[in-house]
């Protein structure tokens, strides 16, 4: 993934006062789908919902984990900070996803920093309580293990994409993931600006612009953050072909002549 420099943060009022959250809000996160009601009730006793603005910091890399947070709406970017202060975008969390890692012991530290992308609502649980209940509740322990497996699978998929796909294919795959299900011709709005999309796909901004331009030939039109796809099926069919070099008849004839000569 390429380095990602965040823009300077503007002065603003802090996050809105937290609101209490109940078992229903916790159940909306996939992690808690199979957790028993008693455990969920204990977790929700001190759960709270916070509203954030663009670039508000949830936590800093190296800080002690005090809360486990989930995205209720909006997006949160995860950043890795080097010793020189350089920032690299590691991932972007969306609805229902854990922000960072689930703590299983007290006094753990964050391995990443997290910032809101646009208006965002997050659900927070006390980390110490969560870590204790992981040891006491078989259903919560199983949920955390399953979530870890899914995170590893997702990271492997991203690594495979970075190593096996070019910029055109990565962009096409990203757009296909945003297309509404069941629609072949569709319109949608990009979830965040193209600068952040470029960082997520591991390409430079000018490379992303060229990739968007190439997709026009495949029925993808953009106007600022609005996207129109003429045919999702056609775009999906072209996704793999975008990475194939053109086959030139002249090149094949040369190969055949060398074969015949041999």
From TrEMBL:
Region span, Disordered? 1-23
Q: Provide the Cyclic nucleotide-binding domain boundaries.
A: 31-134
Q: Where is the HTH crp-type domain?
A: 165-233
Task: Report if keyword Transcription regulation is assigned.
Answer: yes
Q: Which InterPro entries match?
A: cNMP-bd_dom, cNMP-bd_dom_sf, Env_Response_Regulators, HTH_CRP, RmlC-like_jellyroll, WH-like_DNA-bd_sf, WH_DNA-bd_sf
**Gene3D superfamilies, per database record:** Jelly Rolls, Winged helix-like DNA-binding domain superfamily/Winged helix DNA-binding domain
Presence of keyword DNA-binding: yes
**Polar residues: bias regions:** 1-11
Quote the Pfam families the UniProt record gives: cNMP_binding, HTH_Crp_2
Record protein name field: Crp/Fnr family transcriptional regulator
């Amino acid at each position: 993934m390429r380095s990602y420099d965040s823009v300077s943060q503007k002065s603003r009022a802090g996050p809105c006062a937290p609101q209490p959250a109940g078992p229903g809000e916790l159940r909306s996160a996939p992690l808690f789908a199979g957790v028993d009601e008693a455990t969920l009730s204990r977790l929700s006793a001190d759960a709270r919902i916070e509203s954030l603005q663009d670039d508000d910091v949830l936590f800093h890399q190296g800080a002690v984990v005090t809360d486990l947070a989930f995205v209720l709406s909006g997006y949160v970017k995860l950043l890795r900070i080097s010793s020189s202060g350089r920032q690299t975008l590691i991932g972007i969390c969306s609805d229902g996803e854990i922000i960072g890692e689930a703590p299983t012991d007290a006094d753990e530290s964050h391995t990443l920093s997290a910032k809101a992308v646009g208006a965002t609502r997050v659900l927070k649980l006390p980390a110490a309580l969560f870590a204790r209940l992981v040891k006491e509740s078989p259903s919560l322990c199983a949920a955390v293990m399953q979530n870890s497996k899914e995170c590893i699978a997702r990271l492997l998929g991203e690594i495979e994409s970075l190593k096996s796909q070019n910029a055109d294919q990565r962009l096409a795959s990203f757009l296909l993931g945003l297309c509404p299900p069941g629609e072949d011709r569709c319109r949608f709005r990009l979830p965040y600006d193209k600068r952040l999309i470029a960082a997520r796909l591991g390409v430079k901004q000018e490379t992303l612009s060229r990739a968007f331009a190439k997709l026009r030939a495949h029925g993808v039109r953009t106007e600022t953050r609005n996207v129109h796809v003429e045919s999702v099926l056609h775009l999906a069919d072209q996704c793999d072909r975008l990475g194939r070099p053109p086959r030139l008849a002249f090149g094949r004839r040369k190969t055949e002549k060398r074969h015949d000569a041999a």
